[in-house]
Design goal:
The chain is α+β, with helices and mostly antiparallel strands. It contains eleven helices and ten strands. Helix content is 38%, strand content 25%. The protein has a six-stranded antiparallel beta sheet. It has a four-stranded antiparallel beta sheet with strand order 7-8-9-10, with no helix packed on it. Keywords: Bacterial flagellum, Cell membrane, Cell projection, Chemotaxis, Cilium, Flagellar rotation, Flagellum, Membrane.
């Protein structure tokens, strides 16, 4: 807190300077020598503001993907938003979470090391309740999970990591894989206590139940891709143009793509009774004269007009006319 001088103190200070009792140059030197910034080695700063902004953008996408995934799985209203992205020692993170919580320990190749997705018990049990046919409410008392409950949660969160993979695609193509699920933070030691981590806090609401989901990413894990988290790399990668080899490969794949081509002889409407009574030799009247051209569709779009025939004892169609976009609309009418 900054000290505020009273008017009497200001007058006394000015009088001392005027009389020569105090030297202004000595005061300036004293201010210079006292400019010391306190640095806490237990809270080493490893992530710059630029890195924090990039992590925020990435995990805002992660939150949107998770919202879509959980809404579909639980079939209820789910809302997930990024509340805060900060850096702190791993030990401080462990002490800040409940003694009984859901800890999803996972790896994300090619990154080396382990990360943690911590889910508040209120959120986890609300998910369990929905998956087992309930309204999605959390119990008043949290007990140890049964084997069945553990398996259900493992399946839910194992697939949730696909959202993390999608969110990180702009930086690196990772393959997250759930390794283990713990409920006691004291049994989870993925890095040293003083290691700096990035903590992404997500506020989660499932129906009327609210809680937090925390993603713990140790600095040592994402250190190899830290340069890619800079704003310069972020915008350059978005504007990156395709190299000629990629364009050529894309063209080759497109030219090899298979599309169904259908030549329609005509249409007819019959009853189910008539359809069931069809036999060899029966004749079905179509809605088109014989001399009208056949409509040839590529996929679902009319592209050509042709005429039927045969080539070497095989049924064939000869293309007589290429249908333009305007003509296609007229023919559909």
């Amino acid at each position: 807190m900054v000290d505020v001088l009273s008017q009497n103190e200001i007058d006394a200070l000015l009088a001392a300077l005027s009389s020569g009792e105090m030297d202004a140059d000595e005061l300036k030197k004293e201010e210079v020598t006292r400019k010391v910034r306190v640095y806490d080695f237990k809270r080493a700063t490893r992530f710059s503001k630029d890195h924090i902004r990039s992590l925020t953008r990435i995990h805002e996408n992660f939150a949107r993907y998770l919202t879509t995934y959980f809404s579909a799985q639980l079939r209820t209203f789910v809302q997930i938003n990024v509340v805060q992205v900060e850096q702190l020692p791993y030990d401080e993170f462990i002490r800040s979470i409940p003694k009984m919580t859901i800890l999803n320990i996972f790896e994300a190749e090619p990154l080396e090391g382990r990360m943690v997705l911590e889910v508040h018990p209120n959120v986890a049990y609300a998910m369990l309740d929905r998956m087992l046919g309930g309204q999605g409410t959390a119990p008043t008392k949290i007990n140890n999970m049964t084997e069945i409950e553990t398996i259900i949660l493992e399946r839910i969160f194992a697939r949730a990591f696909e959202s993390l993979q999608e969110a990180w695609k702009t930086i690196i193509d990772i393959s997250p894989r759930l390794e283990a699920m713990e409920t006691n933070p004291q049994f989870m030691q993925i890095v040293s206590p003083n290691e700096t981590i990035a903590l992404i806090s997500l506020s989660t609401k499932i129906g009327d139940t609210t809680g937090m989901i925390n993603l713990c990413i140790p600095h040592v894990v994402i250190e190899p891709v830290m340069p890619r988290l800079s704003a310069h790399h972020w915008f350059v990668s978005q504007k990156k143009e395709r190299i000629p080899e990629e364009v050529e490969m894309l063209e080759q794949r497109v030219t090899k793509a298979k599309l169904p081509i259908v030549a329609e002889l005509g249409e007819s409407v019959i009853t189910i009774k008539e359809f069931l009574g069809l036999a060899v030799g029966d004749v079905i009247s179509l809605n088109k004269p014989i001399d009208d051209g056949l409509r040839i569709k590529v996929g679902e779009k009319l592209k050509f007009i042709g005429s039927p025939g045969s080539v070497k004892d095989r049924i064939a169609v000869q293309v007589d006319q290429v249908v333009s976009e305007g003509a296609e609309e007229e023919n559909d009418e």
